[in-house]
Design brief:
Length: 343
């Protein structure tokens, strides 16, 4: 199949009278890209046509991507605000094209579980089941720490010309960095941090530990984890030009409640955390006892999608514990309530 693609391209150039010397130069470029399972892109107009965007708007996006984002803030679980930059539909379309046609074809480390096909918080947590010791660490300012030159270098390394690499990198960045909210940022970090994952995997193997990463969350588990491992991990993170978030470093030993990406790994199988289930059961109890509207009034709940969020939480509970009867009954109750409110 690759040979056919290459021959078709070369035939295309010869039919248009391109000199044989130039065809040979193009041939090497095409072979590299086809060999890496990514689309052949020659220049600005070619890329804009592939993405289906008129050149004037495409030039504006490449030269000033920051103008094509809407920025807002959401509360962090542990306090503070997280900045989210949502790309305009036209830029999002370009980012989706890059993800589907280029990024998804690039392998990532097996230890990376975030935002990857057939992986999830569940696959990230499962390797740590029943571990006696659990070390959780975090990378600070994760997406903004990845600069545009990292991204451009990656596109260059898989075969794209310097100018094409810049166009692609610019569409993935805002103000010269990856941005939280872009559809390309999560998978790009997986690709760009392959070396980091490999080093941390090697460290884990040396100490008989298991290692996984979900975005900026690093998790190590094993029968014994010495405190000295923390400083080694920090030094490796710093070597990659990133910063460890010391405030989120936790080493748990023989603790019953061990949570990895929102899931309890203390037992033989994954489960929703006890505190999560306790709070959810309390909410459901009050709804059954006082009625939905009275519960909202008593708790002064003004969230417009509160019922949807409860259903989402119960669905998460059932994903973790599909045979739990409390969760099954809760879902029936909430769905009935949801349907009754649609009438």
């Amino acid at each position: 199949m690759n040979d056919i693609k290459i021959r078709n391209w070369l035939s295309h150039f010869r039919q248009r009278g391109v000199s044989e010397a130039l065809v040979e130069i193009y041939a090497e470029y095409i072979k590299t890209l086809v060999g890496n399972s990514v689309p052949v892109i020659f220049e600005f107009e070619h890329l804009s046509r592939l993405m289906g965007v008129d050149q004037t708007r495409f030039r504006a996006m490449v030269n000033s991507p920051s103008s094509f984002y809407r920025t807002f803030y959401i509360k962090k679980r542990l306090g503070g605000l997280r900045e989210i930059s949502s790309p305009f539909p036209s830029l999002l379309m370009c980012q989706d094209w890059i993800y589907k046609n280029i990024l998804i074809n690039i392998p990532i480390h097996p230890c990376a579980h975030g935002f990857a096909p057939e992986k999830s918080i569940f696959t990230n947590a499962t390797p740590h089941l029943k571990a006696r010791c659990l070390l959780k660490m975090d990378i600070k300012d994760f997406f903004p720490s990845i600069k545009i030159n990292w991204v451009a270098n990656f596109f260059n390394q898989i075969g794209y010309a310097d100018n094409v690499s810049f166009y692609l990198a610019s569409l993935c960045c805002k103000e010269g960095r990856l941005v939280q909210g872009s559809s390309t940022s999560p998978y790009l970090t997986n690709i760009l941090l392959y070396g980091l994952d490999q080093r941390l995997f090697g460290l884990a193997k040396t100490y008989n530990m298991t290692y996984t990463r979900y975005a900026d969350d690093l998790t190590f588990s094993g029968e014994y984890i010495p405190h000295t491992v923390i400083d080694i991990v920090k030094s490796i993170i710093l070597d990659f030009g990133l910063k460890p978030n010391s405030e989120k470093t936790r080493l748990q030993i023989d603790k019953n409640q061990k949570i990895v990406t929102g899931l309890s790994v203390a037992g033989d199988s994954l489960s929703a955390p006890r505190s999560f289930k306790r709070e959810l059961k309390k909410e459901l109890h009050f709804i059954r006892k006082f009625g939905y509207e009275s519960h909202l009034a008593k708790k002064k709940i003004r969230k417009p999608f509160y019922l949807d969020s409860l259903i989402g939480k119960v669905n998460f509970w059932l994903q973790a514990e599909p045979n739990d009867q409390h969760a099954k009954q809760a879902l029936v109750t909430l769905r009935e309530l949801y349907e009754s409110r649609k009438i």
